[in-house]
Amino acid sequence: MASIESLLRAADLPDSSSAKLDAEWLLAAALGKAPSYLRTWPEREVPPECEARFAADLERRRSGEPVAYILGRQGFWSLDLEVAPHTLIPRPDTELLVETALLLLPATPAQVLDLGTGTGAIALALAHERPAWQVTGVDRVVEAVALAARNAQRLRLGNVTFRESDWFSALDSQRFALIVSNPPYIPASDPHLLQGDVRFEPSSALVAGEDGLDDIRHIIGASASHLVSAGWLLLEHGYDQAAMVRALLAEGGFTKVESRRDFGGHERISLGRLP
Fold first, then answer.
1. For the ranges 41-55, 92-106, 114-128, 229-243, which has the lowest average pLDDT?
2. C-alpha–C-alpha distance, residues 16 and 49, integer Å
3. Which of 221, 87, 62, 228 is nearest to 150 (CA)?
4. pLDDT at residue 197 above 80?
5. Kind and range of the H or E run holding 138
6. By the 8 A CB rule, do 113 and 136 touch?
7. 3-state SS string over 231-273?
């Protein structure tokens, strides 16, 4: 049997900033341990069945499959979420959307909507931080709705519900104090769609027309019918789309329009308030 240290040393993943961490996560999962176990007991021998799983998972990672899909989970905010290939993998930059949403409304009862919820990451983080809020997450993909509901059940969050809906289509006349969304915003011709982890993620959750703004236009245009007076709309978008999104919000009648920067210094989210 090989030791933890020798298996990690021999893990020949393609060079990247995350290669070492990827191998550690995969081996820890194969062992059913936390990654800290590997550093505490590097000399421990790995059972053959665990070594076989590690080898198989390494091969999947070499093919480019994201670690989150291999493990079936991903951390977001303070939550550990189930993920699957029919949903986007939650990313740290989207936590800015959660941080901003928490600052827009007080911690008193409010109706909040997450459009295109996917794994439920945004809705679940908001529900976790604001027990008085009633959060609704919608997605047109029925498998995503079921996955988000499983995450809510496992996290024991009773103030969040998930529904199948193509944006606002199933919401009738419901109105919300806050609408948040991380919609598709990548242009169809973007070469990054053929590179890295996004090759394995659903294109329907990434691509939005020739300029990447088709879904954002739709959301802005329809939001006024689903916001209360003085309600907020908060959108994530591409690093180079902030000016265009601000213009769309202003054209849609929103006030107090602004953008905020992510951890990399890019204007990643924009928001506006209904008069």
1. 41-55
2. 28
3. 87
4. no
5. strand 133-139
6. yes
7. EEEEEECCCCCHHHHHHHHHHCCCEEEEEEECCCCCEEEEEEE
Provide the 10 A C-beta neighbour count for residue 155: 16
Amino acid (one-letter) located at 160? V
- Measured over the CA atoms of residue 263, residue 64, residue 238 and residue 91, the dihedral's sign is negative
Quote the tokens at residue 27: 């081996």
Residue 167, token pair as written in the block: 């944006």
pLDDT per residue as tens digits for the range 77-120:
999 999 998 888 898 889 999 999 999 999 999 999 999 999 99
Exposure b/e, 228-267, CB count within 10 A at least 16 = b: eeebbbbbbbbeebbebbbebbeebebeebebbebeeebb
Q: How far apart are CA 97 and CA 74, in angstroms?
A: 17
In sequence order, which residues have a C-beta less than 8 Å from that of residue 68 and are 6 or more positions away? 74, 83, 89
DSSP string, 160-216: EEEEE-STTTT-TT--EEEEEE----B-TT-GGGGSGGGGGS-GGGTB-SSSS-HHH
Measure the CA–CA gap between 28 and 34, rounded to whole angstroms: 6
**Predicted confidence (pLDDT) at residue 270 exceeds the cutoff of 60:** yes
CA–CA distance, 125 with 135 (Å, rounded to integer):
10
For residue 193, what pLDDT is reported? Answer: 45
